[in-house]
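Hi R.,

As promised on Friday, here is the backbone we talked about, encoded as structure tokens. Could you run it through your design pipeline when you get a chance and send me back a sequence?
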């Protein structure tokens, strides 16, 4: 089965447009990606994460139960979903990427408490989020094929990115 990458990218762009406006402020961080649409989505996601985590940081560190607003909760949930769906759709392509380890952990932690309606209760103990202004959240993956006695072995590694 052949992946329809263009269709999958267009679907993720549509989902993203439902909750955030297209933004190229962080586009320079995603220049290594060959596909223009993928670069646009990643730059837009990056901008959205900066804004959404800046807002969350106004409630952190959480020494008592803190509330994260409903609209921001929905937008953050959608952005995380788009990031992971796009990552899955691009596996094995020239635009395959990995999520920065800190943000990957942050996304997973946020998915545990974010709610679609009524806002979300931030867990006690959650610390301020380190915002990435000059570093990419998404790094292009480089796939290396190595042939060993019994057949090919595929390893994926983040492509080095120097800013």
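Update: got your reply. Pasting your designed sequence below so it's all in one thread:
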């Amino acid at each position: 089965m052949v992946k329809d990458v263009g269709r999958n990218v267009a679907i993720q762009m549509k989902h993203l447009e439902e909750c955030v406006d297209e933004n190229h402020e962080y586009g320079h961080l995603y220049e290594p990606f060959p596909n223009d649409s993928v670069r646009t989505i990643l730059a837009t996601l990056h901008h959205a994460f900066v804004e959404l985590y800046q807002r969350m940081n106004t409630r952190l560190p959480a020494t008592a139960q803190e509330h994260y607003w409903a609209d921001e909760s929905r937008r953050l949930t959608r952005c995380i979903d788009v990031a992971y769906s796009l990552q899955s759709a691009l596996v094995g392509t020239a635009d395959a990427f990995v999520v920065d380890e800190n943000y990957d952990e942050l996304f997973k932690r946020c998915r545990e408490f974010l709610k679609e309606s009524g806002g979300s209760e931030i867990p006690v103990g959650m610390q301020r989020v380190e915002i990435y202004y000059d570093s990419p959240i998404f790094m292009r993956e480089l796939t290396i094929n190595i042939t060993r006695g019994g057949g090919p072995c595929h390893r994926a590694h983040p492509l080095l990115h120097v800013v």
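One thing I noticed while checking it: The mean pLDDT is 89.

Thanks again,
M.
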